[in-house]
Amino acid sequence: MTVPRIQLNDGHSIPQLGFGVFKVDPKETERIVADALEVGYRHLDTARIYGNEEGVGRAIAASGIPREQLYVTTKLWNDDQGTASVHEAFDASLERLGLEYVDLYLIHWPSPARDRYVETWHAFEELRGSGRVRSIGVSNFLVPHLERLLGESDVVPAVDQIELHPAHQQPATAAFAEEHGIAIEAWGPLGQGKYPLFELPEIAGAAAAHGKSPAQVVIRWHLQRGHILFPKSSTRARMAENFDVFDFELGEPEMNAITALEREGRVSAHPDEVN
Ligand SMILES: NC(=O)c1ccc[n+]([C@@H]2O[C@H](COP(=O)([O-])OP(=O)(O)OC[C@H]3O[C@@H](n4cnc5c(N)ncnc54)[C@H](OP(=O)(O)O)[C@@H]3O)[C@@H](O)[C@H]2O)c1
């Protein structure tokens, strides 16, 4: 299956559907990522703070898949924001991954109490210049954080990775991103299993109508909304289920009904509170 790609504002493109490894046990990561690669995923989303970059790297190395066919994202943790520390943290991530470059490097959270994300971004610009990072972006940045970054740099983030699912769509951030050519990556695309999305009649009904699962309907909704996403599952059957979403399409009324589920239903922390 060829996954559609989303064009980024820097000339690179990214597979729209990938596989995320938040909360994947480092001891199990190699096996789980190996399963995901066998299922067909070619886009992997990890982070320094997940503690599993090594496992991701080992699975990539063992897979024999040519590097250019893979898309790998990792993220800078809050403690490493600053000027000098960014380079050191990046080198360490690259080494743990066993890669010569990453496709996308993200500032994980704005961490406003530190007030260092602008200088961190300038260090990211240098990293991109070094060729060891193809694209640079941010995560959990809300409109005020993006406005400040855009006011102090000529480099517009390629993506903003934010919590986004039918019950929490962050319309203001999404609209700002669209206006400025920043692609939206939806984390927690299934509500992390914390929001009871799958039982909602709009989702369960569409699933029954298409002979698909509620998770597949939610993933399809994201794809048709233009989001980049990488649902996580430790179970191979669910990895396959989440990847099997290219043989049906939600109609406009179904899309509209799911979009109308917005409830400001954040399931994780507010970006101003993660420091
Ligand atoms: N930038 C950030 O701050 C940030 C924060 C959080 C996440 N992320 C990224 O986004 C990725 C995805 O988000 P997430 O992992 O938090 O949440 P998610 O993908 O919305 O949900 C994962 C949960 O859903 C379950 N699940 C997966 N497929 C399912 C299916 N087909 N049917 C029923 N349940 C299913 C999983 O359980 P099983 O594993 O048991 O199948 C797991 O409990 C992460 O892995 C990470 O890469 C980024």
Automatic annotation (TrEMBL):
It comes from the Bacteria. Residues 23-262 form the NADP-dependent oxidoreductase domain. Keywords: NADP, Oxidoreductase. Pfam families: Aldo_ket_red. Belongs to the aldo/keto reductase family. This is Aldo/keto reductase. It comes from Agromyces lapidis. The lineage of its organism: Bacteria, Bacillati, Actinomycetota, Actinomycetes, Micrococcales.
